[in-house]
Design brief:
The complex is a heterodimer of chains A (about 290) and B (about 750).
Chain A: E1 5-7, H1 12-21, E2 26-29, H2 35-40, E3 48-51, E4 61-64, E5 66-69, H3 75-80, H4 82-87, H5 89-96, H6 101-106, H7 109-115, H8 123-128, E6 132-137, E7 140-145, H9 146-149, E8 150-152, E9 155-156, E10 163-169, E11 176-183, E12 194-202, E13 208-216, E14 223-224, H10 226-232, H11 239-252, H12 263-289
Parallel strand pairs in A: 1-3, 2-3
Antiparallel strand pairs in A: 4-5, 5-10, 6-7, 6-10, 8-9, 11-12, 12-13, 13-14
Helix pairs in contact in A: 10-11, 11-12
Chain B: H1 16-20, E1 36-42, E2 48-54, H2 56-60, E3 64-68, E4 92-93, E5 99-105, H3 108-115, E6 119-124, H4 131-134, E7 150-158, H5 161-166, E8 170-178, E9 190-196, E10 199-204, H6 209-220, E11 227-231, H7 246-257, E12 261-264, H8 267-273, E13 280-288, E14 294-306, H9 312-321, E15 332-340, H10 354-372, H11 376-383, H12 402-413, H13 415-418, E16 427-437, E17 450-456, E18 462-465, H14 475-487, E19 494-496, H15 515-542, E20 549-552, E21 555-558, E22 564-566, H16 567-578, E23 583-589, E24 609-620, E25 627-637, H17 644-663, E26 669-670, E27 673-674, E28 692-697, H18 720-732, H19 743-755
Parallel strand pairs in B: 1-12, 10-11, 14-15, 18-19, 25-28
Antiparallel strand pairs in B: 1-5, 2-4, 2-6, 3-5, 7-15, 8-13, 9-10, 9-12, 13-14, 16-24, 17-18, 17-23, 20-21, 21-22, 24-25, 26-27
Helix pairs in contact in B: 9-10, 10-18, 14-15, 15-16, 17-18
The chains are: A alpha+beta (about 290), B alpha+beta (about 750).
The structure holds flavin-adenine dinucleotide.
């Protein structure tokens, strides 16, 4: 049987203390919806699990122009936060489509990115948002763009003794719209075969001022499709343009074939979903402008 | 108007409260004092020789109690239809998942750990996975002691097939493929077994006690009187729990351990080693006249048995014949082979071969209709079997609402307005029909029938016992309704016993959609017999003629003196009157006119046949191939419906299962290994994937059913998948002949046609 002790620090300093003290023999535990399943499938458990959900400063959404999300915030709270919904609809959607109600009530945003599977549903939105990840250990604090945080399937940039302590989303301009769309075989409780996040800001004259196109589940790490972004910027939205950008995204994606889908099908879905996501993000950006 | 007080009413399930409140004891909740927990070591190879098994290290692990292998358990061969199974593999393993050893330990984790310490040396042998390859003369032979991989072969002729095709105006041929579908019950298989000397007791969620009893007594060489089976609550069975080896393995391990043992399969194990639906290739050829009348049907079936047969033989016989009674056929030919491969054994699953055959025939009916320019509903109405028919295989159709079901489903779904008219939206509507049995003599050739004991206690409460068993379909509810109706007592005073073979009489169990028909009739007979005993008691007490007495609302009334007595008082009097006999009615039911089919499979196998029409409405995303199922309309003839809500539940569950048989579910294999043995990758629908379901009852009273009832459980999913395939065709003009029809397959087909110019959208 998997045996471990759960430590429940009351503050961040104590948590970092414990991480250092039991170094090599401890792992952070958030919702446990990835970690405990790993144990069930035979991955060896450390002696200690550090429950970070009981640390208040890690478990809340703070808004002050920018949005700062504590990593232990559960996905229900992320998807229902009014600020996240109105500024970063794609993140609310990404968080809101994970698993089921029961899973979202436990699963955290920090756990989702730290676990770093290619199909993680908050990853493309965070990438498209240019989010940054703040990490802390006894030795100090550092911040990096989320793009640099993902190193490969189930690999992240954390050093031993480090905790993710905050996820920061920049302040946005008006006339911004975003969307997260994922392809799954069924409508709920499924993993993304392809995930697409698009965030798009319009100039007052409705040209695309800024755009981010991010893909999940089509490569070892979530990706930004810079070629597509470059193509779009500076132009007014048109179906043809979106189509062209989508074609670039399709070429850029490097998916694998597995029991969930063939690589070719994933690529085709990338094209369709990128095209549709650009169109819908554009619609939302227009609505955002008119205050709808 | 029939005046029933409980028949036809939406009474709640007898066990609803226990289940909803979590009080029901399922296999894994069951506990015996001193009970050990078992785990099974399974073969990692599809075909291999066992050179050596060493269990010493595992035995030394603290907490391990005993280990069972072929070397300390009986080696007799056994099986429900073919004796091709053993308890544990001795010299050879035949598929990835074959039982090699089992460990009993103080807890599940210790038993699991011990599995890793058992050392087995294998010598890998050639394996065969494709049934066509397995039929080749030089193919590796799955079972070393057999000469061929063909486990079962039948060929049947009726009428003159050649003349039938000669008379046809249009002939169409097609190959259809039906996949491995997993039952996906919430509760995995498991059992608890205990021996007292040579007497074995098994507690398990098994649907058909009789099959288990026969096989287990063969395997252990014990007399039938030494085996007792008690059914635990069943967390879904769908045929998959008609027979399960885990009961035998648990019993073997308990015997070696000298203590009670429980084994509950993990989900992965369950998906890799139980009995999914028999996959089939069906080469079908049918001919029709210019007017649309079917002149001939010729089918060639190759079915993938997997490594062991279970009930595969009867499944294939069903797929070969049953659908032929849906329409008025006279010229039929079929050749079918059930072929061993080194894959998971396949078996019983809701529909029992019938959904497979219906997919082929009901897809082809649409193809033929289109070629003739006849409407799909019209061609079905023209050919539909009707009340009074004796079909091509000698089946007597005493009641048939097929034509009504077509008309009702068509009207309710707006068939005429929608069919062929929504192509620009890539929307389509499609129809398929089906029939199913209400009991099948072929699954109980030695003797079919059903029995009941209906006991009345001194306080007037009623106990009903049968050997049929409730697997969640509501059998006990139906039995309680029938007993309550006959005895004119309140429904909630009737208690239906859990199945205990030491107490109950003969029964075949929940299979072949027989329980309402056979068990229901037996309960009715038992309740009628109990009513006679009540009248005996009252007549004795009042010293009057039996004919003076009537039973009204649970009260016995002497019509002459107007004296009254409750049935409890009568039951009390009966004890004194007989010197200790509890008031009990025994009911037996014999399916009059039903025969064991002869060698050519001719003969009426069931007392009644249910019919249904399903209409699917879909919308296809032309860029992704995704299908949105917009609505399903189902019209069913199940005779008189005893509990409408239970009936709707069966139909809705069947639709959900049938929809995903059509568009989603499939066990995927690579060299004999299941690639998706988890619910992460084997998808069953969630509630969001199920569209609006509309259920219509079109049945009238059947002359043989209890209060006129026929079956519904399996019928509910028989026509679903072909209705969807036909709807997809209506939407995009592409015919899919392989299940499941996934978005990936649809998109590929669209793109191919776009390339060659035959698809313009
Ligand atoms: C049934 C089911 C369905 C699911 N569906 C989806 C889905 O649709 N989409 C999806 O993306 N995921 C899905 N998941 C996966 C999972 O729920 C998510 O990845 C979830 O966000 C993980 O969060 P958690 O809090 O449970 O992480 P945990 O399991 O607690 O932790 C995951 C990993 O992150 C580490 N960790 C957690 N927090 C920190 C921190 N602050 N600092 C450093 N390390 C940390 C842990 O040590 C561990 O290694 C599903 C899981 C299940 C069981």
């Amino acid at each position: 049987m998997t045996k471990y002790s759960i430590l429940t620090p009351t503050g961040l300093d104590e948590a970092l203390e414990l991480l250092e003290k039991h170094s090599g023999n401890i792992k952070p535990l958030a919702g446990g919806t990835d970690l405990l399943i790993d144990f069930r499938y035979g991955k060896p458990a450390p002696e200690f699990l550090l429950d970070i959900t009981c640390i208040p400063e890690l478990n809340r959404v703070k808004v002050n122009g920018d949005i700062r999300i504590g990593p232990a915030t559960n996905l229900t709270d992320v998807s229902q936060s009014n600020e996240i919904k109105s500024w970063y609809a794609m993140l609310a959607e990404g968080a809101g489509c994970v698993g089921s109600y029961q899973i979202r009530n436990l699963a955290t945003i920090g756990g989702n990115i730290c676990n770093a599977v290619p199909s993680a549903d908050t990853a493309p939105p965070l990438l498209a948002a240019d989010a940054s990840v703040k990490m802390r250990s006894k030795a100090g604090e550092r911040t990096m763009p989320v793009a640099a945080f993902f190193l490969g399937p189930r690999k992240n940039a954390l050093q031993p003794g480090e905790l993710v302590t905050e996820i920061e989303l920049p302040t946005l301009k008006e006339r911004t719209g975003s969307i997260y769309k994922r392809y799954t075989h069924r409508k709920a409780l499924d993993l993304a075969v392809v995930g697409v996040a698009v965030q798009l800001t319009l100039t007052p004259s409705l040209e695309i001022e800024n755009v981010a196109v991010a893909l999940g589940a089509v490569a070892p790490v979530p990706l930004r499709v810079e070629a597509a972004e470059k193509l779009l910027v500076g132009n007014p939205y048109s179906e043809e343009l979106a189509e062209e950008a989508a074609e670039l995204a399709k070429k850029f994606a490097k998916p694998i074939s597995d029991v969930r889908s063939s690589a070719e099908y994933r690529q085709k879905i990338v094209r369709v979903f990128v095209k549709r996501s650009i169109a819908e993000a554009h619609q939302r950006a227009i609505s955002a402008r008119s205050g709808e | 108007m029939d005046d029933f007080s409980i028949i036809g009413k939406n009474v709640p399930y007898t066990d609803a409260k226990e289940k909803i409140t979590g009080k029901a004891i399922y296999a894994a909740d069951f506990r015996l004092p001193t009970m050990l927990h078992g785990k099974i070591l399974r073969s990692p190879y599809p075909s291999a020789k066992i050179v050596h098994i060493d269990t010493t290290k595992a035995e030394r692990l603290p907490g391990v109690h005993s280990i069972a292998t072929a070397f300390n358990t009986p080696g007799t061969k056994f099986g429900p239809t073919k004796s091709d199974e053993r308890l544990f593999a001795k010299e050879r393993v035949h598929y990835i998942g074959d039982d090699v050893a089992a460990v009993a330990a103080i807890d599940v984790d210790t038993a699991k750990e011990a599995l890793g310490l058992i050392e087995v040396e294998y010598e890998i042998l050639p394996a065969v996975f494709d049934p066509f390859e397995a039929m080749q003369p030089n193919a590796p032979i799955v079972h070393e002691d057999m000469e061929t991989n063909v486990c079962h072969h039948i060929e049947l002729h009726r009428g003159d097939i050649q003349r039938g095709f000669d008379e046809a105006f249009v002939i169409h041929e097609e190959r259809y493929y039906l996949q491995h579908q997993y039952q996906a019950y919430i509760e995995t298989n498991g059992a608890t077994a205990a021996w007292q000397g040579d007497r074995l007791t098994v507690w398990a969620p098994i649907q058909t006690a009789r099959i288990l009893a026969t096989v287990i007594c063969d395997a252990f060489g014990i007399p039938r009187g030494s085996f007792r089976f008690l059914q635990t609550y069943i967390g879904g069975g769908f045929g998959g729990k008609a027979y399960q080896r885990v009961c035998l393995i648990t019993a073997a391990l308990a015997r070696v351990a000298g203590a009670p043992v429980q084994i509950i399969l993990d989900r992965e194990e369950d998906m890799e080693s139980t009995l999914p639906r028999v996959p089939m290739f069906i080469d079908l050829k049918m001919g029709v006249t210019k007017e649309g009348y079917i002149t001939a049907k010729d089918a060639k079936i190759v079915a993938d048995n997997g490594a062991y047969t279970a009930m595969g033989v009867v499944v294939v016989d069903t797929a070969s014949t049953r659908v032929d009674s849906l329409y008025r056929l006279s010229n039929v030919h079929v050749i079918a082979d059930l072929v061993y491969t080194n894959k998971v054994p396949t078996g019983m699953f809701r529909g029992f071969g019938n959904p497979q055959a219906h997919f082929a025939v009901e897809s082809m009916m649409d193809t033929l209709a289109e070629k003739l320019g006849i409407d799909s509903a019209e061609i079905r109405l023209k050919n539909a079997t009707r009340t009074g028919d004796v079909t091509v295989h000698g089946w007597k159709i005493d009641s048939c609402g097929l034509s009504d079901s077509i008309r009702v489903a068509a009207k309710a779904s707006g068939w005429v307005e929608k069919r062929g008219k929504q192509k620009e939206k890539a929307r389509g509507i499609g129809m398929a029909c089906g029939l199913h049995v209400s009991g099948n003599r072929a699954i109980a050739p030695a003797g079919d029938g059903a029995s009941s004991q209906v006991r009345i206690h001194e306080d007037g409460s009623v106990h009903v016992a049968t050997s049929e068993g409730d697997i969640g379909q509501g059998a006990n509810t139906i039995f309680a309704q029938i007993a309550a109706e006959v005895l004119s007592v309140p429904y909630d005073t009737v208690y239906v016993d859990p199945l205990d073979t030491d107490v109950t009489y003969f029964g075949v169990g929940a299979g072949a959609s027989r329980v309402t028909m056979m068990g229901g009739n037996a309960v009715k007979a038992g309740a009628l017999a109990a009513r006679e005993r009540l009248i005996d008691a009252a007549a004795d007490r009042w010293e009057c003629k039996r004919s003076d007495i009537v039973l009204v609302k649970g009260i016995l009334v002497n019509q002459i003196t107007e004296a009254e007595m409750t049935i409890g008082e009568a039951a009390t009097h009966y004890i004194g009157m007989t010197g200790g006999s509890r008031l009990m009615g025994e009911g037996f039911f014999r399916a009059e006119g039903v025969v064991v089919p002869d060698k050519t499979k001719y003969g009426n196998i069931s007392l009644a046949y249910s019919f249904a029409t399903h209409v699917a409405e879909v919308e296809v995303d032309l860029e992704t191939g995704q299908v949105e199922i917009l609505k399903m309309t189902a019209a069913h003839d199940s005779g008189r419906v005893i509990n409408p809500r239970a009936f709707e539940g069966q139909v809705e569950g069947g639709l959900a299962m049938g929809i995903w048989y059509g568009v989603g579910e499939q066990l995927v294999f690579d060299k004999g290994r299941v690639l998706n043995p988890t619910f992460t990758d084997y998808k069953v629908p969630t509630i969001r994937d199920i569209p609006k379901l509309e259920v219509h009852i079109v049945g009238k009273e059947d002359p043989n059913g209890p209060f006129g009832a026929k079956s519904v459980g399996e019928m509910a999913m028989v026509p679903t998948a072909p209705a969807i395939a036909n709807a997809i065709y209506d939407a995009i003009g592409i015919r899919f002949t392989e299940l499941p029809i996934t978005p990936e397959k649809i998109l590929k087909a669209i793109e191919e046609r776009r390339k060659n110019g035959s698809f313009q959208r």
